[in-house]
Design brief:
CATH topology of the largest domain: Rossmann fold
Mean pLDDT: 89
Strand order of the largest sheet: 7-5-3-4-2-1-6-8-9-10
CATH architecture of the largest domain: 3-Layer(aba) Sandwich
Distance between the termini: 38 Å
Oligomer: single chain
Number of helices: 18
Helix content: 40-55%
Largest sheet: 10 strands, mixed
Low-confidence stretches: none
CATH class of the largest domain: Alpha Beta
Radius of gyration: 23 Å
Length: 443
């Protein structure tokens, strides 16, 4: 009995594009995590299968059930110094010969609803235990990019962050969001020489480099001599679920009052990490000197060098809470953050430097006016839809706050312009730019 011949008209199986989960396993979201999560859905919508590479605890030796359980397990056992020293020796050997990634089965055994807002879209999850920490710890001048091998290799690897890794035998795309450690070295704790070597190695080895603004593209070309043909600015998009885009003002107001004790359109909002480049110190000083009675809400966890940024606020108040009309929240879930953005009188984002500036886009898409800076990529995102200021001039920020606070017609005009400007950064536009890159590399 002869075998049934294959259907010649059947479409070939979809190719797989894998992204890294370096920032996706962080408990609190970052801009890069948002980028990676949105990228996973964009790849899906382009018709590719989506793989995600993590560096969590599951190992190849575990049973399928234990791999799935270990992937979602947040327990961190204590390790003795001797055991850790022995592991470091073994990890040095792993890094030298390359890393192996195995697939983590997702059968539904673990009830993963609690992780829904942090997980990307995926067709397959792969894991190499402690991959990102070990690869960074063993980064060296002689072998800057360590090899990763897969039991089921993808057709293309898209690294969403500058990592000392590459996938052997397939195209490697790297997203370099910005060069903040080199352009504003005083604002980060990175080892600048090490960072420069890493980015140099990536620029030399990458099949293509993606970035998210013309400002960042110019930096990459200028600092590392990369040919413009090897760097593409795709900009970014942000997916705000329909439920949050069209919520009635009354529903937003009720939630604000019930949870935060805030009135609709009667507070200013900043959200993001508390770090030097975000310019929190000058923003607080400007807000206080503006004399406006409207409260300021700051949402963000303290990151590197945050003590200096919050010094004025801490000198004026004791502990975290409400003093001098300033409310500090370390963290709010995504749904409540959308409520805070939608209900704000205006968003404040006078950053010193951004590769893109997602908060500006998020605010515009939710119809909230924005005061932002005229530095780096932010004018590209803001267009004519935001009030822009010199982020180094505290008085200029204060004048902008006072102007927006006292002019309802201006706020309405900014909200209208923001909706129009935000539409330029749609997921469809982002997907089209990425498709051009993937199509060329996957031929």
């Amino acid at each position: 009995m002869s075998a049934t011949p294959p259907d010649a008209s059947a479409a070939p199986p979809a190719k797989t594009i894998m992204i890294d989960g370096r920032n996706l396993d962080l408990e609190r979201g970052t801009g890069v995590a948002t980028y990676a999560r949105n990228l996973s859905y964009c790849i899906r919508d382009l018709g590719y299968r989506v793989g995600v590479l993590y560096g969590n605890k599951p190992s190849a030796k575990m049973s399928p059930a234990m791999k799935e359980i270990a992937f979602f397990d947040t327990y961190q056992p204590r390790i003795s110094p001797l055991t850790q020293a022995w592991k470091d020796v073994l990890n040095w050997g792993r890094a030298r010969i390359g890393f192996s990634a195995t697939q983590v089965p997702m059968s539904g055994l673990v009830i993963a609803d609690s992780f829904a807002s942090r997980l990307p879209y995926f067709d397959a999850i792969h894991n190499s235990p402690d991959l990102f920490r070990v690869s960074h710890a063993n980064f060296s001048r002689s072998a800057p990019l360590r090899r990763v091998q897969f039991e089921a290799p993808p057709d293309l690897m898209h690294w969403t962050y500058p990592l000392p890794l590459h996938a052997r035998g397939i195209p490697n795309v790297y997203t370099l969001h910005d060069l903040v450690p080199l352009r504003l070295p005083h604002t980060t704790l990175d080892n600048k020489r090490r960072y420069f070597r890493l980015v140099s190695a990536i620029c030399e080895r990458a099949d293509h480099i993606v970035t998210v603004s013309e400002s960042s593209k110019a930096d990459i070309i200028q600092l590392f001599g990369v040919s413009p043909s090897r760097v593409t600015n795709t900009y970014q998009s942000v997916y705000v679920p329909e439920a949050y885009l069209n919520r009635p003002a009354e529903a937003v107001a009720r939630e604000l009052e019930g949870i935060f004790g805030l009135e609709y359109r009667k507070y200013y909002l900043f959200w993001g990490s508390i770090e030097p480049k975000k310019n929190i110190g000058r923003m607080i000083e400007a807000y206080l000197s503006s004399g406006v009675p409207t409260p300021l809400v700051i949402v963000g966890a303290q990151a590197w060098k945050s003590e200096h940024e919050l010094k004025l606020l801490e000198d004026l108040q004791t502990g975290t809470g409400r003093r001098n009309n300033i409310i500090r929240l370390n963290y709010v879930p995504f749904a409540l953050l959308m409520t805070l953005i939608a209900g704000a009188r205006a968003a404040l984002f006078p950053s010193l430097y951004e590769g893109f500036g997602l908060p500006v886009l998020e605010a515009m898409q939710l119809g909230t006016p924005v005061i932002t800076s005229n530095a780096a990529s932010l004018p590209e995102v803001a267009g004519d839809a935001c009030v822009m200021v010199n982020p180094y001039e505290t008085r200029a920020i204060a004048r902008a706050i006072a102007m927006v606070d006292g002019d309802e017609a201006l706020r309405d005009e900014l909200a209208t312009r923001g909706l129009r400007q935000g539409a330029l950064f749609s997921p469809e536009a982002h997907a089209g730019r990425l498709k051009n890159i993937y199509d060329k590399l996957l031929k």
